[in-house]
Amino acid sequence: MVSWAEDDFVRSLVGAAPNTAAAYGRDLAQFVAWAERAGLGGPAEVTPLTLRRYLASLDTRRLQRRTIARKAAALRRYFGWARRRGLVTNDPARRLSAPRGEARLPRVLKERELDVLLDGGGPSAARPPGGPVEGAVDGRDRAVVELLYGSGLRVSELCDLRPGDLDLRRARVTVWGKGSKQRVLPMSEPSVEAVRTWLGEGRPVLAGPESPADRVFLNRRGRALTSRDVRRILDRRSPVPTHPHALRHTYATHLLDGGADLRAVQELLGHADLATTQVYTHVSKERLRSVYLATHPRA
Prior knowledge:
- This protein is mostly helical.
- It contains 12 helices and 3 strands.
């Protein structure tokens, strides 16, 4: 039986975000398991009809369209790579299409929700102040939410920040986004203040002998902050369930509401395609319509 070279394919995804590469690896493994149950011995035996039948089987399992679309993208990426490697003569996925994902508008935080999140007035706010560790954690949490909202960072970008990425004097932060693309972003005054306080007063409290020196943010155990840690931070501070990406959505929408150019917002967010950014224009229009309906006497 010819190898599908799954591990080699995953290792080839050097320009993809780690989460994307991991998802593509899982998607390919699921397809290979399905194909081998159907009696296929390797990628050269896969035809366009095979792939269409596989996607149809996913639809009968009632998977979300967005999930099926991602699995189709993984297969297109894999078979393009397999053709270049000589594992297949013709690319069976070249014309593979899948149902488009649902066009869901991103959730934008309401003004009250954002205020509570930034000020730390969530469910745990009534607890009495603790010792130095609790003070350090509170300072870190404030710096995290200020950066997520003030600069529109992805969670992975925030967790990967190095001290050298911060230029607090000039209020700038350098991040490495998807595809290892670098961009330099302005920082808000509150985020500069919060990060400076965290680095000067909070981080030394949480840092231990094995703490990574090349990470800005640490968790309570002194290890590098993870995306799961960030979710817990928002759960503690927010009055309603809030995904970290909602702060990025809110950042982009508020920029457009304030008159920012769409191309400028695209650059700030690090979107490769302007169409990805354009969804926020729809959100902004919906917000304006809501304000109109709620406030205009003739609405």
